[in-house]
Structure formats: structure tokens, C-alpha cells
Amino acid sequence: MNLVFLGPPGAGKGTIASQAKVQYDIPHISTGDLFRNHIKHETELGKQVKAILSRGDLVPDSITIAMVKERLAEDDAKKGFILDGFPRTIIQAEALEGMTTLDAVVNFKLGREEIIKRLSGRRMCKSTGRIYHLIYDPPKKEGLDDETGEPLMQRDDDKPEAIAHRLDVYLEQTEPLIAFYKEEGLLVDIDASHSPDTVMAELVSVLK
Ligand code: AP5
Q1: Is the whole-model pTM more than 0.85?
Q2: Which residue has a Cα nearest atom 27 of ligand 1?
Q3: Does residue 9 belong to any structural domain of this protein?
């Protein structure tokens, strides 16, 4: 199954993708994670995009498209994939059409107030990548990863100024993709305001 997860920042795309990748036995390809990995390992690409991610701006299309093309060419993506956070512009969506065909584009719907709550309470473990929330999904021991015991961190782009900017960028550059994929007959809406298990159950049901 070839899937795209579309939706505003903090809608829960990454959280649901971590369950869906097991359910469908396909890789979860998050462009945000790929960029953060480059930043962590201080690669040339990482140095190039670090400030862009911190501000909450989009990485230029040419860089992002090349990175996704390379990732989709890897063996594990031959059996299907969940693309999370790509495409984010019409140019990226058109480029994706030249790389593969899609079975569905899942649109995670969530209101602004809840988005801000989810993003400002999000914490993550840098090495395992596991995502927590201070209220909705706290770690067993405050501030520490359940698996490794490492201190949890807050993403730079989850600070209030960057959150507001990311929402503006989403409305301006990514929301037009909803109409784009509706027209292609690929869009399925999901109400992302419920618990992760309920959202996951809705996903399975709409993909049947
Ligand atoms: P990226 O990492 O893709 O960020 P995003 O799309 O803004 O999405 P998030 O990761 O913030 O949110 P999410 O929907 O995955 O929510 P999550 O599951 O974590 O991109 C980061 C940056 O990289 C971009 O700003 C840009 O600079 C660059 N980039 C990436 N892709 C690009 C592209 N294609 N083109 C150009 N630039 C690109 O959940 C959020 C919180 O809510 C968590 O704490 C979680 O525990 C909690 N939560 C989740 N679901 C629920 C629920 N159902 N109930 C209660 N709490 C929940």
C-alpha cells in the first residue's frame, strides 16, 4: 500500500504512522525525521537545513524532492510506504507523481487550538525518536525515555513562535494539496481529534 499522510503540524501523523507501519508492514518515511537525522549527524545537508527547520520554514523543493526520490528507491519501499510530511507543496506533489503511484492520501483533520496544545506539550527522545506528550502520553519517569532513560528534548520548532509560523506555512503552502488530491480521487479524511487508538481504527476502516 502506497500512502501519504497529510495534515497540519501536530495532527498526529507521526504517532499514527508508527502504528500503521506495523499494521501494514511498510516503512514509515518521514521527511522531517530524515532532515532531523541529517542535522544530528552533521551532514552537509543537515548543516544546510538546520536553521530552516528551527524557524519552521520549508526546505527548498529541489532538496526535498531529491531526498525522497532516493529514499523511495530503497528496497524496503518496494512493498509500499507511508510518506509522512511529503508532499507539502504542489511542486512536490507533481514530482511525486513522476516517482510512484499512490493508493490513498490520508488527511488528518484537527483544529488550531488542539494543534497548539499537542505541539507545545510534545517531547521526544533524540536517539530512539519516540514521541511523548507531557499530558496525553507522558513517559513513565518524568523527562526520561522509557526505553533508554535518556533525557527527553523539545524540538526547536515546537516553541511558540515557530509553531505559529509553521501553521501559517501549512495554510499557505500545504493546505492547497487537499483540493489537489480530492480532484485526483485519492483523498480520505480522518478526524484526528480522538485518541490515537480511535484514530488508528478509523484509518484501518477507511483504507478497507
Ligand atoms: P515534520 O517533522 O514533518 O513536522 P510536521 O509536519 O510539522 O509534523 P509534526 O511532526 O510536527 O506533527 P505530527 O503530525 O507528526 O504529530 P505527532 O504525531 O508528532 O517537519 C519538520 C520540518 O521539516 C518542517 O517544518 C520543514 O522545515 C521540514 N520539512 C519536512 N518535510 C518537508 C517537506 N516535504 N518539504 C519541505 N520541508 C519539509 O503528534 C504531536 C503531539 O501530539 C505528540 O506529542 C503526540 O504524543 C501527541 N498526539 C498525537 N496524536 C494524538 C492523539 N490522537 N491524542 C492526543 N495526543 C496526540
Answers
A1: yes
A2: 53
A3: yes
